[in-house]
Design brief:
By secondary structure, the chain is α+β, with helices and mostly antiparallel strands. Helix content is about 35%, strand content about 35%. The chain starts with about 25 loop residues before the first helix and ends with a helix.
Length: about 120
């Protein structure tokens, strides 16, 4: 899903950042800091470098791939982190639908504004 390699040499601390868009690194690192320091569950919506390909009728459209990243620290008896349970969910389709809805809302607002301007000019 992320495009992250499966070989041992591809895995090192924070190697996942190589799969995440540069603009979302700060958001990921802030959330990760919360997990490590406060030992709390984290979640973040992140864009991946790997594109999401949406197939509409006869054409394919490349868009940003989005994931919902969830992580839970597993603690020992002394409260130290022993493991982190992580889960990635592909939310690309939801993000695409959200952008379509936002675009439609903006178009409707502009149409209403133009209609009001027209009514003001004709009255």
């Amino acid at each position: 899903m992320t495009g992250h390699g499966r070989e041992d040499q591809d895995h090192f601390p924070m190697s996942i950042l190589g799969s995440i868009e540069q603009e979302d690194h700060e958001s990921f690192l802030t959330a990760w800091g919360t997990l490590v320091n406060a030992k709390e569950e984290i979640s973040a919506e992140l864009r991946l470098k790997k594109p999401w390909i949406r197939h509409d009728s006869n054409e394919s459209v490349r868009d940003s791939s989005w994931i919902l990243f969830l992580a839970l620290p597993q603690l020992d008896g002394d409260g130290n982190i022993t493991n982190v349970l992580g889960c990635l969910t592909d939310i690309s389709h939801f993000k695409w639908a959200e952008s379509v809805q936002t675009h439609s809302r903006i178009q409707a607002e502009e149409a209403k504004k133009n209609q009001e301007t027209f009514i003001d000019m004709t009255s």
